[in-house]
Amino acid sequence: MSQEIYKNEDLSFRQRVEDLVSRMTDSEKISQLMHASPEIERLGIDAYNWWNEALHGVARAGVATMFPQAIGMAATFDEDMLFKVGDIISTEGRAKYHEFVRKNDRDIYKGLTFWSPNINIFRDPRWGRGHETYGEDPYLTARLAIAFIKGIQGNDEKYLKAAACAKHYAVHSGPEGERHEFNAVVSEKDLRETYLYAFKQCVTEGRVAGVMGAYNAVNGEPCCGSKTLLKDILRGEWGFEGYVVSDCWAIQDFNQGHKVTDCIEESAALALKNGCDINCGFAFSHLLRALNDGVVTEEEINRAVTNLLMIRMRLGMFDSPEKVPFASIPYEMNDCREHNEFSMRVAKSSIVLLKNKDKLLPLDKTKIKSLAVIGPNADSRQALVGNYFGTASEYVTVLQGIREYVGDDVRIYYAEGCHLFREKCSGLSRSNDRLSEALSAAERADVTILCLGLDGTLEGEQGDASNTDASGDKINLDLPGYQQHLLEAVCATGKPVVLVLMSGSALSVTWADEHVPAILQAWYPGSQGGRAVASVLFGEDSPCGRLPITFYRTTDELPDFRDYSMENRTYRFMENEPLYPFGYGLSYTSFEYSDLKLNSHTISAGEDIKVSVTVKNTGTREANEIVQIYLKDLESEVRLPNRQLVGIKKVFLRPGEKETVCFEVSPRQMAVIRNDGSCVLEPGDFMIYAGGSQPDSRSVELTGAPCLSAKFTVTGKEMNLEY
Predict the structure, then answer these.
(1) Where are the domains of the chain?
(2) What is the per-residue pLDDT across 664-693, written as a single tens digit (0 to 9) for each?
(3) Domain 591-721 class?
(4) Is 65 exposed, middle or buried (0-12, 13-18, 19+ CB in 10 A)?
(5) Of the chain's two ends, which shows fewer C-beta atoms within 10 Å, N or C?
């Protein structure tokens, strides 16, 4: 054959890949279309396993820095922080990958194609995998995901540092137990307004390398073989040039679950023809027969293998290591001190102060002689990690973090209190067998730290979580097992109680809100989580996290779990008053907003509106504040969100300091999605709100600080915009 163009590192990746594909046999090409791609020795193609995870740290491949679970990182509302997290993950991924290759270890979870982030919208708090996401808001999800993707993929003009993958495309958010046959029926308005927004932004702005299809069907089309989603929208409308991967074993669902094909060969052909490039699983092993039968074409197979080899080329897998800027990252960078310290910083930033009556927090250890640390999550490693996690070299539980912080100066009484969800901790005991010990501890303490909630065994992925009754989803929003009983009994001792909730989703803690003086939401805070919680409890750091989800008062107010309409869902469309609103979180200091200014109160259709607001730390402690900008369209004939987030920025202010923060709101953010899915900027009146929370009445009640507002008008003719 002619000169091996694909080995010429001076040529473009496209030229090299086209040459390489031209040299491959049909069976060799098809062998590369599954997640476990074998070696093709004669062409110098190494074996490669595409399946790797990095939701909040390099996962399932041994030791790596473990960050807070994704929902906790979302609570930081901090794009810069998410970029740094992604950058650290790809640094450690590179360090580990090259060391694995040196040992000829090319196993699953050891590559550079990370199937993260999960950018599904957390539309219902019962969904078990919601803690893998960045919450319920499309804008927040998009901003954080783009930052994370850019951190993962690096900024080199030629090579990818690692390849991120946005999943699960699209609409997926439960029920877990039905995902292999579930058909999500979604209106064009909800599809474009809510479910697709973050995916588009990750493709067009984030330049994400990969997209993973979901298990479910959308309006009758299985996502991993959907002409509408993959060909028409992803490739056609958005111009996506990366690779598409099926969720694992999702293609066999076409014939076994969704019943849209009669056999596995037809399922494989449907996925390939509509744009799925790689099969996580083995359904694509049937493509050779489909090719020979004329069901798929060689052109379709070439397209898929070209997309995949382009990614591997961009990762530098065919080039000299000295030419790839990331190939020299040493193994010593993995799990280093600097990365673990940053993990703790992220954990501190993720903690949300939900209540602080009479300023019980922060605690002053010089005035405390004894503490009770009680609860099933107080000394639980499982409550630190969430799911899709790696192995940390050190795990610091809340109990350990508090002990480390107070040292020998404060007596600590520890009690498990109750099992996380069972009736008893010891098999032969009576029910509620740890309650008396917990009460004895609380009675002897000046303050009780009560650690309740969930962990990844109760909420998670079907087959992964041990919650078999709901396949990883939550049946309700209540504290499980005897936790509510423990909470009420400990409070009845009359001693001050600080409730630390560790969960990846909203819990209905209405009783606690009425009776407990101080409440922290700590999520699943990662391996350094105990130190982070202690730091906030004792005031070394002021809490600055904000809720990326709504906390509802009861399970009863939720719509049917299987109903994918956004009516009465999330802060954007809910009708009832929440317990704790999206965007809410308290601080140990106080902030004052002033001088909300718009560049104009009348703009022509198609112009940006520029917004500035001044925020001042009027308290006595230095702290971070999350400045939030919301937009409300005041007049349209279509259903509109109650309000929607359009700007976020974290600012650090010392006492007395102030800063003016600037934003731009684009025409796309002012547009409405009509019932036919079209995106239209309608002339009319709009309201801008600026503050440290939403402008809703419950946020004002909780914070005592109403948002500033300003009205502006868009003039001119109606404009059709690109979605």
Answers:
(1) 14-38+164-314, 337-573, 591-721
(2) 999 999 999 999 999 999 999 999 999 999
(3) mainly beta
(4) buried
(5) N
